[in-house]
Amino acid sequence: MLLNNTVNNRMNFSGIAASPGIGEGTAYIFVNPNLFISERVVSDIPEEIKRLRSSAMAAVLELSVLKESVRARLGDEFAHIFRSQQTIAEDESIIAEIEERIRDNKSSAEESLCYIFESYITLFSELDDSDYNKSRVADIEDVYKRILRILLGLPDVNLSTLPEKSIIIARDLLPSDTAMMDIDQITGMVTELGGATSHVAILANNLGIPAAVGVTGITGAVQNQDRIILDVSDSEKALVYINPTLEIHQKIERTQITLKKHKAQIMKNQDKPVITRDGQEITLSANVGSSVELLPARDAGASSVGLYRSEFLFMNSNSLPSEEEQYQAYRKAAECFEEGFVIIRTLDIGGDKQLSALPLPVEDNPFLGNRALRLTLSLPELFLTQLRAILRAGVHGSVKIMFPMVGGVPELDAALELMNQARIDLEREKIPYDRSMEIGIMVEIPSAVWMADILARQVSFFSVGTNDLTQYLLAADRLNSNVSEYYRVFDPSVFKAVKEVVRAAKNQGRWVGICGELGGNPLAIPLLVGLGVTELSMSPRAIPEASWLIREISLKDAEELANRILELDTDKKIRRVLREFYKSKEINI
Ligand code: PEP
Ligand code: MG
Fold this sequence. Notes:
Elements: E1 2-5, E2 11-19, E3 21-30, H1 45-74, H2 76-90, H3 92-105, H4 109-125, H5 137-151, E4 166-170, H6 175-178, E5 186-191, H7 199-207, E6 211-213, H8 218-221, E7 227-232, E8 238-242, H9 246-267, E9 283-288, H10 294-299, E10 304-309, H11 311-315, H12 323-336, E11 342-345, H13 372-378, H14 380-393, E12 399-403, H15 409-428, E13 439-443, H16 446-450, H17 452-455, E14 461-464, H18 466-474, H19 492-507, E15 511-514, H20 525-530, E16 535-538, H21 543-552, H22 555-565, H23 571-583
Parallel strand pairs: 3-4, 4-5, 5-6, 9-10, 9-16, 10-11, 11-12, 12-13, 13-14, 14-15, 15-16
Antiparallel strand pairs: 1-2, 2-6, 2-8, 3-7, 7-8
Bound molecules: phosphoenolpyruvate and magnesium ion.
């Protein structure tokens, strides 16, 4: 949203606070180039062939630079993607086919490139899912777009090499855009699309980079090299200042001083146990997406991993990870958190998360489609491989397994049956595995709230996925900034649902955790504790504040707060009361 407009391209925008902090830097606009081909009659065929060959060569060079930069930062496992793309760009037989079309049809290098590559993409897309070559479609498409972009004389835009202190400005940032991102150079991220729990928000939170989403109109207003201040010091609203005035700079400096004092208050006593003043122990766990996040999570004070988003292991690769690769990754997590536990969530693909190694049919309504547990139940081979890897990793520590998107007993039964199958197979093959692994489910579909009494009989714990639960309770897409005002994170219905889940779980002697973004929200934490939640899983950087807060409150106060909140009828009123409660714990700053 544009707030005001003054001289010298000084503008202020506001959006949704996605990841806290203050970032200052230079605008780096990320746009996927418009690869439009206009029709053209070719008179000089040798010249056209020369253009094709030099563009393919330039693509090979670009890929080689990219490969080396990714290898230096992220290691060989990421760099090999570019090596295999280089092989496609160098493929003499493909170039020869394109040349032939230029000659025979007198068509331009762009049109001929398009024709030949499109035919390969169609051919590979139609292959059987089990055929390895199918997973190469994404690479073929990437190479094709790269050569076409060079032919059209357009510059390369990717996020793998960035100038120092860049604030990324984009319409949207998809997982594939961020996989290679040069995070050391990024001081902020701003997108037009997305909601508070979209991929980019979760990623920015995990990396500790300030981010704003749903900032409508920003891409049209900013120019590369504009100075930007991104202020996400307020959890309600993010502010983006383009070429800010001196007064804004001074205001930001004052905010930074206040934040610093509050941080000092939080960081005191971080080595003390996480218990309320009246002795209620709360487990603070981390949400992680890969092995590299484990140590920083432990250093931040996490005692366990409450949500291991296993899909990122699948997303960072052009082929599906083998049982052995998965086992090693899960084992590493178990060993890193040997004094706590690690909850591995089975593959949650679909919705906004796609795999290049497993192209899925496009659905009209992907968040209500074949995603998460539904998808893995439809691909039993893939699911069994993952279940085996998790069961095997359980030998090396306290590993628990969690199924995402359970809507009721039928899919839970089906998942448990496959779990049993995996156990039987491992037993027969004499491969060591954890025979008593605890099984839990995410509660993120409203039907699971109403079935919690029954589901609690079959599992050991519930972890409430408030990101999805909120979107399904309120029928407001978590990624769609047009309905972000309806995606009410503090809606009374969300807390009534948590209360119901805790009641049902406690009846069966089960525990309840929260692994959605709400679990790390400092305003929500006292309320969730008061509702009877005993585990909170969050982005590692939210842990110090959560642990300070828990040590500041008593369970009795938190329960009183919860009773008061459950009487309120709007999210605004709830926020107001929670904010007052939080402020009462802050020292005077
Ligand atoms: C959730 O839905 O709250 C959750 C933790 O899962 P994800 O954000 O990965 O969908
Ligand atoms: Mg979810």
